[in-house]
Amino acid sequence: MKEQNVIVVADNVLSPIGKTTAENFDWLKKNISGVKQHHRPGISARPFYASLFDEAETFIDSNRSDYTKFEQLLIASIADALKNCEIDAADKKTILIISSTKGNISLLETQENTPELQKRIALSTSAKLVAEYFGFVNIPIIISNACISGVMGIITGMRLLRSGQYENAVIVGADIISSFILSGFESFQALSPQICKPFDKSRDGLNLGEGAGTIILSTNKKYAQNTKVLGGSVSNDANHISGPSRTGLELSYAIDQSLKDAGLSATEIDFISAHGTATPYNDEMEANAINQSGLQSAPLNSLKGYYGHTLGAAGLIESIISIQSLKHGLILPTPGFKESGVTKPVNVIAESRSIKANHFLKTASGFGGCNAAVVFGK
Amino acid sequence: MPEENYITSNCKIDRGVVFKDDKQIFENKEPDVTGFLLSIYQHLQLNYPKFYKMDNLSKLGWLASEVLLRDNFQKEKYQPEEIGLVLANCNSSLDNDIKYFESAKEIASPSLFVYTLPNIVIGEICIRNNFKGEHAFFIQDNFDTDFIEQQVNYLLNNNILQACICGWVDVLEQDYKAVLFWVEKSKKPGPLVFSAENMNKVFGE
User: Fold this and answer.
1) pLDDT tens digits for range A163-219
2) What does pTM read for this prediction?
3) Which domain covers residue A196, as residue numbers?
4) B166 touches chain A (CB under 8 A)
5) CATH class in words for B6-203
6) Do A173 and A281 lie in a common domain?
7) Residues 88-127 of chain A whose Cβ lies under 8 A from any Cβ of chain B
8) Are residues A209 and A357 in the same domain?
9) Contact B46/A at CB under 8 A
10) Closest to A184 (Cβ–Cβ): which among B91, B116, B158?
């Protein structure tokens, strides 16, 4: 099967750290984190650590007031990515893919539960508004598959382009943090009372984060010099709906399949952007999986200490930052990591490091036992 | 070379009736969804205590998968990684989101929160059957059978999967509908060709 190269044409990270990919990467190089303590009674009665936008911040200049914060994030992120390339949103050959875990669920907190509100919350309503804003002609694809939604968006786009169904894919992911989501993670006792510490001995939970990320992919050969999406895979633990696999074998399977899809061996992976949520179980499972796949010596980071867990945007934001690492030959550190606290060895990067890299692996896992892996390369 | 895949079986649960391969196997016009789903569980004489912990979306999808696979699933034929799921609906997990949100006003419950994601029903079906392959949950205004056909055929024809459950599972308050298809590569006596058209016929209005 001879397949076309799937090429990254443009991207955007919209986060509390910055509004463009370049801005984000510049601040991360200076080790600036978006995670800090917040006192927001509307979200939680107690102070909490998270990466949040300012309460009054708006994201688009529009005289229409009916875009929610979630939709504004999607629109602003897509607009910046489109600005930096020649891809035409209104082209029949362009598809929009939206990833989110909870979209507009925060509307439940402030409005009465009516059929109209239920329709307003539906992700397809947001997708229509966003598609109309840019003039996308194809019906958008919406993915809601827990914390692997962003990576799954990239894999879905890659496959649609490989199969020749479309030439371009605009893949966007976003989530916002409200009391709905925060209370849920709190009920799981999954939140850290400080900036999270992925893979560390004293890790004690995750931070949540807001943000959006957009990756525009194309098979058009004129972009052939750019970074490419080389392979991807998804698996399920078939073990537990809220706890990861004990063995990590299923994430390892997804990693192995994504390498096979990319036509690469484990030794050709130059670094790993891990899911690394800093919960005890996730990081342990990931370390097991990485060992199982023979990647324990590959330098690895988790960006959760910068962004928190941005849920449906995480796979996109972390892939985009890692593409910058690939381009600049600079792996970012794992904020919060000092001493390994997982039972299998993994090569967690504590200080930023210059590196000659050609390929990297991005992993993600989530509730429902889902795992995903995607490989990018020069 | 276009390859053909086949619908080995289908299951529909809609408006108080359970169909297997277009034949009615159970009917209960009780208007309450939770009671209706429990009556299916009892009718099928299932014994799976996890069922009682599930939200209505997971119960509906899980029951439909039980009906779908009954007498049609030869476990020894496949490796766990060779079987996957591609599901869609229009209301995501909103049915349970509303319940979680109401309960969280008093005390947030992790056992309700975990069901505030639509893909949990996929996890439940995977746990039951030890399916470990590719899966995805899509949100669509209406069941987009052309898209589902394309997605499932990609997975099967590229040998990412050898068999796949696909379809629609949606619940919101008292409205619900599940239509699942068990898609395999091998032709057996009388199965439907896997196509958007044949999915539409089963799905109905």
Assistant:
1) 999 999 999 999 999 999 999 999 999 999 999 999 999 999 999 999 999 999 999
2) 0.98
3) 6-223
4) no
5) alpha beta
6) no
7) 101-103, 105, 108-109, 113, 118, 121-124, 127
8) no
9) no
10) B116
